[in-house]
Design brief:
- It is a single chain.
- This protein has 397 residues and is α+β, with helices and mostly antiparallel strands.
- 30% of the residues are buried.
C-alpha cells in the first residue's frame, strides 16, 4: 500500500481503488491501494474524513484508521465494492491540528533533551492537551526557559523540516531520539536546531507553521515531570478563552487586566475577615441560645441559614451547656429544599441510630457514635413528628 501521508502531509484529497471491504466490529473495514489517511500510532491519533464515490453512498465517512497486519484499515460507516474508484478527502482541520501539536511536541522534547538531557519517556496527543513525560525533574525557571526557547525557535528558524529514510549504515552516524531500539527502515524527522527523532507521524513543513507553543502545567511524575501543552490553533483558542475570562474578572473587580490577581487577593482577604467576624457573631448567638437549654435534657431545635460547620458549632455549644447526659439535634433549612442536621450525644450510639432517621426522613449522612451530620428531604413538621414518636416509643438514642 502506498502511504501518501509519508510523502506529503499536506495532501488533502487523493484518488485510490478499493481492494477489500469487510464487516467489522465498528463498521465496515476498507483497504485501499493507496491512502493519505494516517493510521493511529506513535502517540498520534488517526485521521478522519470521507471516501467519495458515485455509487449508492456518495460520501462514506471514515470513522477510524488503524494499521493491522501490515495493512491500513479504514473503518467506515458504509461498505464499498472492491474495485471501486474513490476519492479520499482528509478532515483537514483535524489533520493540521494534530500536525501542529505533534510538531510542537518534537520541538519541546528536542530542546529539553539538548538543554538538560531530558528523555521523553511518554507522549499523549489528547483531544484537549498534549502531555510529555520527561525522565528527570525541571525547575520552574527551566520550565519557563523551555517555553521561551521553543517559541523563539518557531519565530527565528526558517529551515524546513527534514524527513529522511537513512540506510542502516547512515543511521549509525545519526544522533536521534528514540524510546526503543529500532529495526528495519527507520524514518527520521528533523527540526534543524531543535530535534532529530525517529517518528512515523505527520508534521508541518516549517517550524513557523506550529504558530505558538504554550506550556500549561508541570507536575511531578515518577522520577521526572509531566508537562501539559497546547500548540498552534489550540494555543490561540486557549489564550483567547483565558483572556475572555480575565476581562470578565476585570470588570467584576473593577481592576485593570494585569491587576486582577492582586484584586482577587484583596477580595479573598476581605472575605476571610468577614467570615471570621460572622463566625464570632454566630458563636456569641450560639452561646446565648445554648444558655436557654442549660442543664440535663434532650434538645431538638431549628435555626435558619446555617452552614454545616455552623450547625456543628451550634450543636457543640448546646451539648456543652446541657452536660454529658444530653441529646441534641440541630436542623437548618426549609421545607422546600430540605434540612441539614447535626446531632450529638456524649457516649451515645448515634452511628447505628441515624440510619433509622435517614430512612424515615429520606436523608443521608453519618459519622461517629457521639456525633453525626447529614441532610433530610422532609418538612419541619415531619422532623418533629419523627422525634416525638421516637421519644414516645422509646427508640430515641
Amino acid at each position: 500500500m502506498e502511504k501518501l501521508y509519508e510523502q506529503d502531509a499536506f495532501i488533502v484529497k487523493f484518488e485510490a481503488k478499493v481492494l477489500s471491504c469487510a464487516k467489522g466490529k465498528k463498521g465496515f473495514d476498507i483497504i485501499l491501494d493507496r491512502t493519505a489517511f494516517y493510521p493511529e500510532g506513535g502517540g498520534q491519533p488517526y485521521d478522519t474524513g470521507r471516501l467519495e464515490t458515485g455509487g449508492t453512498f456518495d460520501k462514506v465517512k471514515v470513522l477510524e484508521v488503524h494499521s493491522r497486519d501490515g495493512e491500513i484499515v479504514h473503518t467506515c460507516n458504509h461498505p464499498l465494492e472492491p474495485g471501486a474508484e474513490i476519492i479520499g478527502v482528509i478532515d483537514w482541520d483535524r489533520r493540521f491540528d494534530l500536525m501542529q501539536q505533534h510538531s510542537g511536541e518534537h520541538i519541546v522534547s528536542g530542546l529539553a533533551h539538548s538543554l538538560w538531557g531530558c528523555e521523553n519517556v511518554g507522549f499523549h496527543l489528547g483531544a484537549e492537551v498534549v502531555t510529555i513525560d520527561f525522565d528527570r525533574p525541571l525547575t520552574e525557571k527551566q520550565f519557563a526557559t523551555l517555553e521561551e526557547t521553543a517559541n523563539w525557535h518557531l519565530w527565528q528558524i526558517n529551515e524546513p523540516v527534514k524527513i529522511a529514510y537513512p540506510s542502516p549504515e547512515e543511521l549509525e552516524h545519526i544522533r536521534y531520539r528514540s524510546k526503543k531500539a529500532l529495526t528495519g527502515q527507520v524514518r527520521i524527522v528533523e527540526f534543524p536546531g531543535a530535534d532529530c527523532c525517529a517518528c512515523c507521524g505527520t508534521h508541518v513543513n516549517y517550524p513557523a507553521q506550529v504558530g505558538l507553543v504554550k506550556l500549561l502545567s508541570m507536575q511531578k511524575f515518577r522520577e521526572g515531570v509531566r508537562i501539559e501543552l497546547v500548540c498552534g490553533g489550540r494555543a490561540f483558542r486557549y489564550l483567547s478563552r483565558a483572556l475572555e475570562q480575565n476581562v470578565q474578572v476585570s470588570r467584576l473587580l473593577s481592576a485593570k487586566l494585569f491587576e486582577t490577581g492582586a484584586a482577587a487577593e484583596r477580595l479573598l482577604a476581605e472575605n476571610a475577615a468577614l467570615k471570621s467576624r460572622l463566625m464570632a457573631l454566630e458563636d456569641a448567638r450560639f452561646a446565648q441560645l445554648a444558655g436557654q437549654y442549660a442543664g440535663p435534657g434532650d434538645v431538638v431545635l431549628f435555626e435558619d441559614g446555617l452552614s454545616p460547620d455552623a450547625l456543628r458549632r451550634l450543636c457543640g455549644a448546646v451539648l456543652h451547656a446541657c452536660g454529658d447526659s444530653c441529646f441534641c439535634a440541630c436542623f437548618s433549612g426549609d421545607d422546600s429544599s430540605g434540612y441539614k442536621y447535626a446531632i450529638g450525644q456524649p457516649n451515645g450510639h448515634l452511628r447505628d441510630w441515624v440510619k433509622s432517621l435517614n430512612q424515615a426522613l429520606n436523608g443521608r449522612g453519618g459519622g461517629k457514635d457521639d456525633f453525626v451530620q447529614g441532610s433530610v428531604q422532609a418538612s419541619r413538621s415531619e422532623i418533629k413528628a419523627f422525634f416525638q414518636a421516637a421519644i414516645r416509643e422509646g427508640t430515641a438514642p
